[in-house]
Design goal:
The chain is α/β, with parallel strands linked by helices and about 650 residues long. It has 3 domains: about 80-240, Substrate Binding Domain Of Dnak, Chain:A, Domain 2 (Up-down Bundle), CATH 1.20.1270.30; about 250-395, Rossmann fold; about 415-655, 3-Layer(aba) Sandwich (Rossmann fold), CATH 3.40.50.2030. The protein is globular, with a radius of gyration of 24 Å. About 55% of the residues are buried.
Length: about 650
């Protein structure tokens, strides 16, 4: 009987993730009695009323639970109002989080350009001048510092703008801009949209579901075509626009004989300077004085994607791995800033030697060491953080590092994709459009977003990506989905063998992999830029909504994901979000964000927990868009398989199809 129970427990753990490292570390956690997000998700079930969107708690007459015979709140608010208000508030909170990141990057650029943050510089002058053009900043005959000061100030003014339109709206296709203006959802100032959304959703204000959901789109657009897009552009200016880079992923990237420091969070101003400080001879000598051979950096969440794309720092894991990393006993410090950082890491660290070091003035964690980061003393503070980690190295106990890691290729900015398609003299998305028009590539999918402990870790991410490329759909990926793809071998050239024949042939010809890692969550704006350029290139309609493209957020969990999903839909990309629906309890609101938004903006938002059904619907959607464009029907037998010409296992790197920095 005891053996039967033990077997059942093991089967239960194995059902939590398809990542063998996660399973191994969960078995260790269970044996040692350590609580993790996985065990807590079993112990704490979601409130079914709030989960479905039928709970209102915006005033203290409630919370009002609209279930059974109770169809309205104490104030008379209907289910439609409550569900729409909840979703709109989530959109505003997500937009605020990503946009505040963009604000911080603009402040860092200003400080770097004025000399107030001497440890930072302008690494991509070309990108600076492109952004200056977008923002209407004169740049001819001016130094890069002069241009950067005005770019930063103009970017910051976009947050406080009170009327008119965000400047970056002009980067969208003209047809898309017309739709937004007709609906009255063009964002004004970024902060204005966030504040107005919370005002509208205060008790006793906006009480029309459709009107509320229009504002959900407007505040999300302020994120996608405002704060996040500015953040991506300014990060590129400061730290360099990414190009292809080779690295590795998973827990096998930790080192037994080095000081292991995990950087976790979202803002590259901290992580980039830590990478620089870790190679300082003084710091390396200090590590050796404590018995370590060196310093080993790895990343979790979107900080991981940022320093991977630009510096080749290995990926340790995505959101659900943060507690498990500490269980290895090999992590001297986990250095965190903002967003997606679980308070549970402090409790886990109490049983090991790991120091949790918080760094942001916006995000302290009870029980963690706090070393506040300031850009004007960036290198000094980074070295202080590294010394704290090094001092902890002699305190290690028994170490358990799973011997699992996977190779990967990442770093596909939209600029590099355009370069790959046409070279420096003819950068263009024309070859991609031509391949789609000819039917070699069926369409494209953006697969992005979080992990959610209510789903089997990484299964939906990986299954959706595999199904897409098998059906000749090119995939672009960011965030925790990108890390899932990296850990499970989907960012290697060998994945080409799992492509449909048309996609495989095109990828081999152009020299791109079928799954393109494009960066962190804020870098979803790179995807917006790609679909905009495809729409304006010609041959695939006049607007983003004409394209045979789809979006997925398979394991969404955060308010940021809601904002991202909504700004993709408002931009014209029909999107499927997994796990469950926050408006499930209100069919009327579900209809507004599907049929209603399809009529208004040409795209729909679906919450579909069955990812196989979502894939089938998405492929049907792609084929319907192809038909509407009068393109040839997709026919996987039309094009010869590449092994006709290249027998055996074909790997891009064997044939030098692209260079790796």
């Amino acid at each position: 009987m005891a053996e039967e129970k033990k077997g059942s427990a093991k089967e239960s753990i194995e059902s939590k993730s398809i990542d063998p490292v996660v399973v191994e570390m969960l078995e260790k956690a269970q044996a040692e009695g350590v609580s993790t997000i996985f065990s807590r998700s079993d112990e704490t079930k979601p409130c079914p009323i709030g989960h479905d969107g039928n709970c209102c708690k915006v005033c203290f007459m409630g919370p009002c639970r609209l279930v059974g015979k109770t169809t309205v709140g104490i104030c008379g608010a209907t289910k439609e109002t409550v569900a729409a208000r909840n979703l709109t508030r989530m959109s505003a909170a997500g937009s605020a989080s990503h946009s505040d990141h963009g604000r911080d990057m603009a402040h860092t650029l200003l400080a770097a350009a004025t000399g107030e943050a001497p440890d930072y510089g302008i690494k991509d002058d070309k990108k600076l001048r492109v952004v200056a053009h977008y923002l209407g900043v004169p740049e001819e005959g001016r130094s890069k510092e002069e241009v950067a000061i005005d770019v930063a100030k103009t970017a910051l003014s976009e947050f406080g703008r009170q009327d008119g339109e965000l400047i970056y709206v002009q980067r969208a296709p003209a047809r898309r801009q017309e739709i937004w203006r007709k609906l009255g959802i063009v964002p004004r100032g970024i902060d204005r949209e966030v504040v107005e959304t919370f005002h509208r959703t205060h008790m006793g204000n906006d009480q029309d579901a459709e009107h509320l959901l229009d504002q959900a789109m407007r505040v999300a657009l302020a994120d996608g075509w405002g704060g996040s897009m500015l953040s991506t552009d300014i990060s590129d200016i400061l730290f360099g626009t990414p190009g292809p880079v080779a690295a590795s992923a998973n827990f096998g990237t930790l080192r037994e004989d080095e000081v292991n420091i995990v950087i976790h969070g979202h803002e590259p101003s901290l992580s980039e300077i830590i990478v620089a400080a870790a190679s300082d001879p003084e710091i390396l000598d200090y590590a050796k004085s404590k018995g370590a051979k060196g310093i080993n950096l790895s990343g979790i969440c979107c900080t991981a994607n940022e320093v991977l794309m630009r510096q080749g720092v290995p990926l340790l894991g995505n959101f659900l791995a943060q507690e498990l990393a500490i269980l290895t006993g090999a992590v001297e410090a986990m250095v965190v800033d903002v967003q997606c950082i679980m308070q549970g890491i402090v409790a886990v660290a109490e049983d090991y030697h790991t120091k949790i070091i918080s760094t942001s003035r916006k995000a302290k964690i009870a029980g963690a060491m706090h070393i506040e980061f300031h850009e004007d003393k960036a290198m000094e503070i980074a070295k202080e953080i590294l010394r704290a980690a090094i001092d902890n190295y002699p305190n290690r106990g028994k170490v358990h590092i799973p011997d699992v890691q996977e190779r990967l290729i990442a770093g596909f900015s939209h600029e590099y994709i355009a370069y790959m398609l046409g070279g420096s003299l003819r950068e263009s998305f024309r070859p991609l459009n031509d391949a789609i028009m000819a039917g070699r590539i069926r369409g494209a999918a953006g697969v992005v977003g979080c992990n959610n402990a209510r789903a089997t870790h990484d299964v939906e991410h990986v299954d959706i990506v595999r199904e897409m490329i098998k059906n000749d759909v090119l995939v672009v990926t960011t965030g925790c989905d990108a890390i899932a793809c990296a850990k499970l071998g989907l960012l290697t050239p060998e994945i080409m063998e799992h492509c449909g024949p048309g996609l495989k042939e095109i990828c081999q010809t152009i020299g791109i992999p079928p799954v393109l890692h494009m960066g962190s969550c804020v870098d979803n704006t790179r995807i917006l830029t790609v679909v905009t350029q495809c729409a304006t290139e010609g041959g695939l309609g006049e607007d983003i909504s004409d394209l045979p493209v789809v979006g997925f957020a398979p394991e969404w969990m955060s308010e940021k994901a809601i904002s991202i999903g909504i700004y993709f839909v408002a931009s014209g990309v029909t999107t499927w979000m997994g796990v469950g629906s926050p408006v499930l309890g209100c069919p009327e609101v579900t209809k507004l964000i599907t049929d209603g938004w399809r009529e208004k903006v040409g795209a729909a938002l679906y919450f579909e927990p069955d990812h196989k059904k979502a894939v089938a619907e998405a492929i049907a959607h792609i084929d319907a868009k192809r038909k509407a464009l009068k393109l040839p029907d997709y026919d996987p037998t039309k094009y010869a398989r590449s092994e006709t010409y290249f027998p055996g296992d074909f790997a891009l790197e064997k044939h030098g199809a692209y260079s790796i920095r």
